[in-house]
Amino acid sequence: MQNTRLSTLVDAVGNQLKKEFRNPWRRLSLIVMSLLFGVYLGTALASTAGQVGYIDIVASALVALVAEAISWLFYSRRWNARATLWGEALNAVKFGLLYGLFLIAFLLGS
Q: Which residue in 68, 89, 100, 104 has the most C-beta neighbors within 10 A?
């Protein structure tokens, strides 16, 4: 890849973010924000799919496929996503999404 201004800027921003998130409190706060975003995403998905009754099966199949793909990526030895920040944040979004869906299901009593 050529060393352009854009690639240099992207590399500099990536290195700065990597330095910022070495701090364990900032890393934990990003993971908690990812978890809460997943809960929000789960409740938004449930309310949106609930309004239009004919896409419930499609939405649940997509959520199951996405959750399995994230689990495969996170727990695979090939990708080693456990050691990376983006892998932990993605797994936290998955947990939040599933928790949000369970929370809506318990609220509705189904």
A: 100
Does residue 1 carry a pLDDT above 70? no
* Sign, CA torsion 84/38/55/102: positive
List alpha helices for the chain, DSSP H. Answer: 5-20, 24-51, 56-75, 85-108
The model carries a pTM of 0.84
61 domain-assigned: yes
**Could you read off the pLDDT of 49-79 as tens digits, one per residue?**
878 777 778 888 999 999 999 999 999 888 8
User: Residue 35, Cβ neighbours under 10 Å: how many?
Assistant: 20
pLDDT at 55: 76
Q: Indicate whether 3 belongs to any domain.
A: no
Domain of residue 69 covers 24-108
Phi, psi (degrees; rounded to nearest 5) at 60 = -70, -35
Mean pLDDT of 102-107: 91
Please state, in angstroms and rounded to a whole number, the distance separating the CA atoms of residues 69 and 72.
5
